[in-house]
Amino acid sequence: MFDKVKPKIVISKCIEFENCRYNGQIISSDVIKELIPYVEFIQVCPEVEIGLGIPRDPIRIVFKENKKLLFQSSTEKDVTKQMKIFSKTFLDQQKNIDGFILKSRSPSCGLKEVKIYPGEKQVPPIGRSAGFFGEEVLKNFSHLAMEDEGRLKNPTIREHFLRKIYTYARFRLIRKSQSLSDLINFHTKHKFLFMAYNQQRLKILGQIVANNDKDSINNIIKKYEINLHLSFKKSPRCTSNINVLMHSFGYFKDKISKKEKTYFLETLKQYRNGQLSLASVISIINMWIVRFEEQYLKQQQFFSPYPKKLIHAENIDSCFSKDYWRGK
Ligand code: SF4
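ok -> C-alpha cells follow
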C-alpha cells in the first residue's frame, strides 16, 4: 500500500526549477536535485505571480507607520496587498500537501531571518521576521514539515524532514481510504518510528486505534492525524534512536555470534559519538532482518522510512552537536 508513495511539497520555484529570482538567476541545490524523482513538487514564485517581472528590482520588508510593508524601493511600489491576497488564495487551494521547502531569507518566501528595514532607503535593518508568503505558510501549516533549502544540507535536519514528509504522505492514503484496518496497518508499521519520536504520543495513538469508545472512523482518523502531527513536532533525540536500535537488537541477540554482538555495539557507540550515521547502524539491523526473516521488524518503517536511493550512510548525523540544536 505504501511502496510508491510520493510526498507533495510546495517549493519556491527559484530553487532548482526556474530562473525567476529578481536578477534572473536560479538557486542550485543538490538536495532538491536528488529529491525530484521521489517527490511531487508544487512550484510557486509569489513575486512573479503578483506581476513583478523577471528580472525585477528587488523588494524588501519595510516597517512604516507601525506596519510591515512589502516595498519595491526603486519604483516606490507597495505590493503588500497583492502579496497577501496571492498567498492566501494560493495556500487555500493546497489541501493535500505534506510540507514546504522555501527559499531562505526572501522577503516573500523566507520562513525566518528576513531583514526588516526602517525605510525604503539604504539603511541597516532593524529586525527580522518571516517573509510575507512564508508568514502565511507558518500561520496555516505549522503542523506540516517545512524547511529552507539551506538547512536541508544538514543530514540530521534532512533525516527528520524526510521521515516526516514520507509518513505524512503514507497517512494521506489512510485519510483517503477511511478504513480502520488500513489505519491499524499504518499504526503497526510505524510503531518503532513513533517510539523514536515520542513514546507518550505513541501510547495515545495506540489508544485511538484501539477505539474503545466506538467512535466513527471519520473521528478516529481526525484524532489520529492531530496526534501524528504532534509526534513529529520535534526531531527525535539520538538517545531515542539508540533505544529503538537496542530494542531491535533484542530480537537477534540470541541468534548472533559474540563477534557480531560486539561489532553492533561498537557501531552503535560510534553513532553515539557522532562518528557514524544512523543509517550505518540501521543497515546492520536490516541485514539481520533479511537473514533471520524477521517479519515484524521487516515491516517497520523505522528501518526504511523513505526510498533507499535517498539514504546516505556516509553522511554523519549531527544531532549531538551544538550547531544542530542552535539551528532549531
Ligand atoms: S524566493 Fe520566492 S519569490 Fe523570490 S524568486 Fe524565489 S520563489 Fe520567487
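The chain has 13 helices and nine strands.
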